[in-house]
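Q: Could you fold this chain for me?
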Amino acid sequence: MSRFSSLLRRFGRDESGVFAVLFGLMAVVLIALGGAVVDYVSLEQTRSRSQMALDAAALALHSRILVTTPNKTQIQADAQALVDDRVGQVGLVKIDDTIINTTEGSLYFTAQMTVNTTFVSMVGVKTLSARIQSEVKRGSMDVEVAVAVDITGSMNDTVPKAGSGGQTETKIAALERSLGQLIDLVVKDDQTPSYSKMAIIPYSMGVNVGSTWAPSIRGAVTAPTPITNITWSTGTEKVISGASRTNPITISATAHGFLDGNFVYINNVSGMTELNNKIYEVINKTNDTFELKSINGTSGYSKHTGNTGRATKCLVSTCELVVASVNHGLTTGANAVVAGVNGMPTYSPNSNYDTYNQYPGTDSTSYNWINNNPADGEFRFLVWKVGAVAQNTFVLPGTPRTNGKDYGTYSSGGSAGCVIAGCEYYLYQNRYASSNPVNARWRVQSISTCTTERTTNGLNDSSPATTLIGRNYPTTYNPCPNVVIQPLTTNKTVLHALASSLPATGSTAGHLGIAWGWYMVSPNFNGPWPAASQPAPKTEKNVLRAVVLMTDGAFNTSYCNGVISQISGSGSGDENTKINCDPVNGDAFAQAKKLCAAMKAADPSIRVYTVAFDVGDIQAAKDIMANCATDSTYAFEATTGADLSAAFAKIGENLSYLRVTK
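A: Sure. Below is the predicted structure, expressed as structure tokens.
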């Protein structure tokens, strides 16, 4: 018995294993306390998502309170359905009160958000709750948003389609759908007392400002003048009845009408054939005869026979062609394009083409000898160095009526124009002019209504009234896109019409998209838009300005003198059509970086959102989008059509959220 008592006393005094027991008891508490941080973070993330969903519902349903008797019950039910759909879980957020104030024009929701816990449930706390509220009220901020979207040729590529089960869609189709959603989120049906406006800038190799605005934005064009006639002669052919073998030769031609000092072209002479297909100056004329200056027919000339010879008076001493075009504005020695002429014959470039054209190519296609013949699909022109000029006429040098050349007869049409910057046509040398003379070419391209970069004030938002935006002389294979920009408007019908008909063509001048996104919301730019499309003055503090930039690839196109520059990257067009100079402000990526920095520095209140859509491994595109955005929360990457829709939806919700009063 004494031994048993001793054993009990030892057991009571023994402390080994106490810590393990205590740790076991405390572990649950420690884990729960540590996990509380995780549960709290989860609660806050869910709260943020739920708040945005409630705000979106309030914004979407606000117009319902503008009727005479709002249906509060139905509005709350519809709001609950919208919130459930947005958060993706029924019952997570429960709207428990709706307050409508038609006098103030406000719609107010309160809701209870409840989430299940993972860690603190171990100590009996099964759920965590939070209260959220949202109020949309008339009289909130005005919104001006410019959306610059990439419509380049790569937008024809396909990406996975949203909810398609493996189906695909073109990127341009995904953009059209997502842009339509953004329009509905940002531009409200009720525009009083606050407004919400959007501008859309489709861009590819340039930005099309349309024929109405182009003269004010990139400058007026010196257009070609109509041609009314092209000929080398005047009057009618005179029959030669005789030619003496004297010094000088005397030509007999009844009532010829020529004057001393006139120049005549003689052909079709029989016998004295040495006279044919040559030009002569008239001297010592009588009514029915005239002499040929300095032509000695006493030696080596055959005897004239018959009445087959003809003499025709030339307009100029060389018997070259004279173009009639009223007030053409050209100067002697200047280059000019003659195009659209009807009635003149076609020659092969292996014969007369190289003789007449001052800037010959090496193509084997036949050309009309005087003007463009785009039979092979490429728009080409012949360029002439203008000869003697009068106000309404000019000579085409190198076209003498000699050696039997027959230029045919002008019938109708045609125009003549200058080929310097600002003219309808522009003559330049391609990028091989210095480095590879074998492939060097002179090229002529016609102007478009697209705009490119400007050299002066190229990196700021100066008005085109101060400095014109750069012109564009595109090629056939990289044309100006056929959709025109839309400045700020509240007209959703107009915006949807543009958003639903976007082409996918051309290379990527992404810096121009950035520039025009800035221009559209900048009061400094002061474009030639209607008053309703002008941005609010900078002094107006109740305006939210935002620029949304979207691209799907590398910025590969920059300009010099309105033509794609020689340093433009792969995919920017045929190397033979690039001009032999560099862009003043750097390549497209360099300019994009500078424009983003300048825009944010000039107006820090502008919120810049960016979306990189299916850019793959093009790191430069990712970088410029990330760096141009206001901060990382404003930059989005999208791989699928669903991603793009989600990115645009978040941008729309964010812009709308900033108009919520609570």
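A (continued): The radius of gyration is 40 Å.
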